[in-house]
């Protein structure tokens, strides 16, 4: 059984709770990310700022000055343990509208696994079997 730790993205770009919304928008747009985890100094996952969160802020014409990640991040983050199976995460992503989920170990952020990561892994395995 394949574990998500085998295919997740490990070196994840993160922000702190006091990171400004303007900095987060720059990171997401330049890096073409759909979300960015918010962690404390110990790398404990506190939340995530998604493109949906930002679109909501911008659409409502909220004033961005002085807004921080902690003010608008999604706190109830769907996370999976680093030892969870690929099948478990894949089933969740198929049933839910999430593009990615965080991967944790004892509350500490270890990585992210996305639909794209899973597609790439399954396709690589398919190509190997074809060869």
Structure description:
The chain has one domain (4-130): CBS-domain (Roll), CATH 3.10.580. It contains five helices and five strands; from the N terminus they run αββααβαββα. The chain has helices at residues 21-31, 51-59, 69-72, 86-95, 115-130; strands at residues 35-39, 45-50, 79-81, 100-105, 108-114. A three-stranded mixed sheet has the order 3-4-5. The radius of gyration is 16 Å and the shape is elongated. The mean pLDDT is 93.
Mean pLDDT: 93
Order of strands in the sheet with most strands = 3-4-5
Structural class based on helices, strands and sheet pairing = alpha+beta
For the biggest sheet, the summary is: 3 strands, mixed
List the helices and strands and how they pair.
Blueprint lengths: L20 H11 L3 E5 L5 E6 H9 L9 H4 L6 E3 L4 H10 L4 E6 L2 E7 H16 L1
Parallel strand pairs: 3-4
Antiparallel strand pairs: 1-2, 4-5
Task: Give a quick precis of the structure.
This protein is α+β, with helices and mostly antiparallel strands and 131 residues long.
Question: Which structural traits does this protein have?
Answer:
single chain; 131 residues; CBS-domain; 38% helix
